[in-house]
Specification:
Homodimer. It comes from Sinocyclocheilus grahami (Dianchi golden-line fish). Keywords: Aminotransferase, Pyridoxal phosphate, Transferase. With 367 residues, this protein is of the alpha/beta class. The protein has a domain at 68-307: Type I PLP-dependent aspartate aminotransferase-like (Major domain) (Aspartate Aminotransferase, domain 2), CATH 3.40.640. The protein is 35% helix and 14% strand. It contains 13 helices and eleven strands. The strands form three sheets. The protein has a seven-stranded mixed β-sheet, with helices on both faces. Helix 7 links the parallel strand 4 (176-183) and strand 5 (211-215). Helix 1 (25-35) crosses helix 11 (297-307), helix 3 (75-88) packs parallel to helix 11 (297-307) and helix 7 (195-208) packs across helix 9 (234-241). The two termini are 20 Å apart.
Length: 367
């Protein structure tokens, strides 16, 4: 390695805090008040943080974060999440009974894969390329075959129905796709799907009888900054499409604290909302989660803040909303580097550059 590099930052774990991004003050203030309630008696915390901590503690057994919650998370926190999802989706109702707080999205995915791969044959899941770097390792550990569909780099890493058709046809005879995995907003591409694109994927899933596994990180939804881009959830589009899609296509929407602005990887908590899934299947999902006893309580506290952040006029609102991603500056910088190119980014905290390597003096290139 060239001696001009004094320090190398390993970002492969997608851990923003290890790269120097600071935690959100309000999150840590509420968590501190819950862990050490004595500070709630003074003025060390702003009033809204104190009130939030007191409210959360009142819903934990013994008023302590050291007690267990329900297996799938505190019902109070699940209610907060459900209300937030309903607000996000323009009034499409969300029930706390369909919300499962888990040990991050990896645990939720493992549960869903166990549910989906009960029948005979080689189970497979359709996944994008590029995909989150942990996804293929998880599938391999679960004995699930990845069936890859390519995202179109030249059109900003978009989806194409023709490519989905090609991918599933190529899998015939060697495996049985049970689900299609979607990351929206895209990890690691930053692409935000349009409503029309989501409709195409939903129709494809219905035609092929695939379960939708959609990673819709809440922490990315709030970082959609490109002109003309708007986050719309799969659940909302599904509901607005009407029958036979709205009540026939099964969906798991996954969320985590680990990525995006929140970046609280160490809290190891996320949640999953199930849509159009039979009650018996949801009960089985809860049974599979009982081995965890309950998700980390500190993580549940942070999920509550993520789902119901400070509002305009509250003391902590200005500080909470101060951080705005400036990824377009990173894209401009990368595009000025020799051999590099990068599509514009619409959301998230990642950029996905393209590197062309010069092999020799005859201008032969390797991409």
């Amino acid at each position: 390695m060239s001696g001009s590099f004094r320090k190398v930052l390993d970002l492969s774990s997608e851990d923003p805090h290890s790269a120097g991004i600071k935690p959100i003050t309000f999150v840590r203030q509420v968590a501190a008040g819950c862990v050490y309630p004595r500070i709630l008696q003074g003025d060390a915390l702003p009033p809204d943080a104190r009130l939030r901590a007191q409210k959360l503690l009142s819903h934990f057994d013994g008023g302590s974060v050291g007690s267990y919650t329900e297996t799938c998370g505190s019902m109070h926190v699940r209610n907060t999440i459900a209300k937030s999802v309903s607000l996000r989706d323009g009034g499409v109702q969300s029930s706390p009974e369909q919300v499962f707080i888990t040990v991050d999205t990896q645990r939720a995915l493992m549960v869903m894969l166990r549910l989906l791969c009960q029948s005979e044959g080689v189970c497979a899941v359709m996944i994008p390329d590029p995909a989150p770097h942990t996804l293929t390792r998880l599938l391999d550990r679960m004995g699930v075959v990845p069936v890859t569909y390519q995202l179109r780099e030249q059109s900003g890493w978009s989806f194409e129905r023709a490519e989905l058709n090609r991918s599933i046809q190529a899998s015939r005879g060697r495996c049985f796709p049970r689900a299609i995995y979607i990351s929206n907003p895209g990890n690691p591409t930053g692409h935000v799907q349009s409503r029309e694109s989501i409709q195409h994927v939903i129709r494809f899933a219905a035609d092929e009888q695939l379960f939708l596994l959609v990673d819709e990180e809440s922490v990315y939804q709030d970082t959609v900054f490109a002109d003309g881009s708007e986050f719309v959830s799969y659940k909302r589009v599904l509901a607005e499409m009407g029958e036979p899609y709205s009540d026939g296509v099964q969906l798991a929407s996954l969320h985590s604290l680990s990525n995006g602005i929140m970046g609280e990887c160490g809290f190891r908590t996320g949640y999953m909302e199930l849509v159009n899934v039979d009650e018996a299947v949801m009960l089985y999902a809860e049974v599979l989660l009982t081995g965890d006893l309950c998700p980390p309580v500190i993580g549940q506290i942070t999920l509550d803040v993520m789902a119901d952040p400070p509002r305009p006029g509250e003391p902590s609102y200005s500080l909470y909303t101060r951080f705005v991603p400036k990824l377009w500056k990173a894209v401009e910088f990368i595009n000025d580097l020799p051999g590099f190119s990068c599509q514009s980014v619409q959301s998230g905290i990642f950029v996905y550059p393209h590197l062309t390597l010069l092999l020799d003096n005859t201008c032969n290139y390797l991409e």
